[in-house]
Amino acid sequence: MSLFVFGYGSLLYKPVPHYVNCYPGFIKGFARRFAQSSSDHRGTVENPGRVCTIVHSDEWAMYAASHPCGKGDAFPEDDQVWGVVYEIAPEHSSEIKAYLDDREKNGYSEERIHVYGADSKVAYENVLIYVGRLDNPAFVGPQPIDELAMLIATHEGPSGTNKDYLYQLAEHVRRICPESTDHYLETLLAHVKHFEKAGHVPPSEQNS
């Protein structure tokens, strides 16, 4: 049986191995946020970076409303997240599932969801996705956008700089389709670019 996986973060520009097809689409009821601490990819144990996760929209809204740094954390598309569905051939399904379980072990839980096409109709069912839970140890919650941008602009881990993760993610989300712009990502990116332009941090390789 083929495995279908929804990518919304680094999987957009680092696809899973052995995929035979990929399809653009979006999911409903989720918000994409840089609210996950990363000590193994885009930061270190001493200086953890931030990577994006998706959180159920209603959970995020309630959490942000009660959090000191949650004020103003609302964007137009907060109930849907654009990404890509990867179809994995049956002979590699178990292998890729194990690979993803290990890859997403730092604070993610798996769910099965529907993915919608550009016509807003269900295009794929029972699609595997890794979701950040509010009670997982790596979840850090909302943060003032300028503070978050400075953290992303200055941190680095085994997988590279935190800001290049953001640059690549925003670029690949834009490429999905004309409707796929993520205003949260674009706002965060604009703040990082501001710090670079002001000379607070070196320019990103993705922006050179």
UniProtKB/TrEMBL annotation:
Family matches, as Pfam families: ChaC
Keywords annotated in UniProt: Lyase
Organism domain of life: Eukaryota
Keyword Cell membrane attached: no
Single Gene Ontology MF annotation: glutathione specific gamma-glutamylcyclotransferase activity
Any one of the GO BP annotations: glutathione catabolic process
GO CC annotation terms, alphabetical: cytoplasm
EC class: lyase
Keyword Coiled coil: no
EC number in record: 4.3.2.7
UniProt cross-references to PANTHER family, sorted A to Z: CATION TRANSPORT PROTEIN CHAC-RELATED (PTHR12192), GLUTATHIONE-SPECIFIC GAMMA-GLUTAMYLCYCLOTRANSFERASE 2 (PTHR12192:SF2)
Record-given protein name: glutathione-specific gamma-glutamylcyclotransferase
